[in-house]
Amino acid sequence: MTPKNTICLWFERDAEEAARFYASVFPDSAVHAVHRAPGDYPSGQEGDVLTVDFTVCGIPCMGLNGGPAFRQTEAFSFQIATDDQEETDRYWNAIVGNGGQESACGWCKDKWGLSWQITPRTLTEAMAAGGEEAKRAFAAMMQMGKIDVAAINAARRG
User: Fold this and answer.
1) In the structure, what pLDDT confidence band is assigned to residue 1 with cuts at 50, 70 and 90?
2) What sign has the CA pseudo-torsion 56, 59, 64, 70?
3) CATH 3.40.50.1000 fits 1-70, yes or no
4) Which of 13, 34, 18 is closest to 95 using CA atoms?
5) Global pTM value
6) Which of 42, 86, 118, 140 is deepest in the core (most CB within 10 A)?
7) Over the stretch 65-83, which tens digit does the pLDDT of each residue have?
8) What is the pLDDT of residues 97-122, one digit of tens each?
9) CB under 8 Å to 17, separation ≥6 — which residues?
10) 153 neighbors 141 (Cβ within 8 angstroms)
């Protein structure tokens, strides 16, 4: 059954490669279908991969090979909650190590330009706690690229 809501991600031409990469990295992720264009279109030809149905951590997505007209921006990102430093490192290193780019405060960008927030649960828990604990954790995070779980935990304790 087709989900009521699906995230549509615009790719220049690599939707299938991206979807297969995401499925290889994240749990509860898979490529479900690859659909080829039934005719020529502005950025492709009949038979080219047009859309890819996939999930990322259980979230239904469709990759659209729409050509160079639109680019990914930080206005959209996947936020992936992690339980420890090992999991944080695994996802961060997979994205950055596959042609991606590091950014600040737990953000990175994959080689297709899609932004990811690799966010340890301890950080979101600190923000939810509010007060001085949140201020300390936030100040620590502002100094980081990839989130350092031990440093966030130390900041939470004061």
Assistant:
1) confident
2) negative
3) no
4) 18
5) 0.94
6) 118
7) 999 999 999 999 999 999 9
8) 999 999 999 999 999 999 999 999 99
9) none
10) no
Residues 23-60 pLDDT 10s: 999 999 999 999 999 999 999 999 999 999 999 999 99
| Residue 138 contacts residue 127 (beta carbons within 8 Å) | yes
For the chain, the structural domain boundaries read 1-70, 72-158
Q: CATH topology of 1-70 equal to that of 72-158?
A: yes
- CA 7, 84, 17, 30 torsion: positive or negative? negative
User: Domain spanning 72-158 has what CATH number?
Assistant: 3.10.180.10
Checking 37-40 for CB contacts under 8 A at 24+ apart, the result is: none
Q: Which amino acid is located at 36 in the chain?
A: R
Residues with Cβ within 8 Å of residue 87, at least 6 apart in sequence? none
**Rounded Cα gap, residues 147 and 11, in angstroms:** 28
Length of the chain: 158
Distance of CA 127 to the CA centre of its chain: 21
